[in-house]
Amino acid sequence: MTNDGLNASRLGSEEWPLTGGAMVPKKSLKVLRERSNVPGLLHLAAHIGALLLTGSMIYLSMGTLWIIPATLLHGAIIVLLFAPLHECSHGTAFRSRWLNTTVGMFAAVVSMRPFLYFKYRHTAHHTYTQHEHLDPDIVPFPSTLREYVLLILGVSFWPKMIGTYWRGLTGRFSPVELSFIPESDIRRVRREIVLTLALYVAVAMISIALHSWAAVIYWLLPRFVGEPVLRAIRMAEHTGAEESPDLLANTRTTLANPVFRTLYWNMPFHAEHHVASSVPFHALARLHKEMRPHLNCVANGYVEVHTQIIREILARRRFARQSSTGGPA
């Protein structure tokens, strides 16, 4: 499985030959693919700074109702660590390999996603983007508002996350997982999961010994309540786009403000990332300028995306009711 964006023939697989990569000139890609440590370190510093700021807001708001928005904001910054985890899994966040691995594993531990496991799962997502059965991360379009709300709340995410850790701990990976984890790396993936769980247990034991709620207040609770923010972002990337091999139509680019783009490491330029996943995050804005006329799925913000999704859900429900009663379609 490969998806480096150099040309259309190397995107996807025989089962799912992705298209769209041919429209990016090789000459442009060669320049855009240049990696550097500086942008990644600057974004990492901004992210850690934001975490310290929102963590301080929680500390200062203790005993007041202001702790609720402070916790929600801190949780949003925590779950956005998915962005450096994601970029490091591609090996493009930094020029140095050890930085990609170290920062990726740090973000993985904090956001509760095994780094190596995610790397292989995400490769399958890029190879089979929007394939109904082979894309492990496809989010089917919600058929009702209830289903939409449950997706946003992460009701299906948490059982999947717990299941991933349990199967990694016991070594009983599912057939789907064995389809994207190389046999030669199963032990490494399992070892990382076991060590991560051991670290979580150590944090719990130290917290109990010190009678400290710090881990809960500044990490676990915010991490939990912040998940809907990430669910909404992840849904915007593909949900409602075409379920076809056309990367220019099956992935959505969402135009966001500079602050959010910094904290989400330019991942709102998502169609660009899928077309050329070897291009580092800091060059995606430049790639967007070249690709913009060719993109079929672009939104002017996350509110617009979810407004469209909700309207489509309601429209489909109306059509279904009218069809069942014999009314006008």
TrEMBL record:
Pfam families xrefs: FA_desaturase
GO molecular function: sphingolipid delta-4 desaturase activity
Keyword Acetylation: no
Keyword Membrane: yes
One BP annotation, GO: ceramide biosynthetic process
Transmembrane segments: 40-60, 66-86, 98-118, 138-158, 197-221
Swiss-Prot/TrEMBL keywords: Membrane, Transmembrane, Transmembrane helix
Fatty acid desaturase domain boundaries: 67-294
GO cellular component, one term: membrane
Name of this chain's protein: Fatty acid desaturase
Organism of this sequence: Caballeronia sordidicola
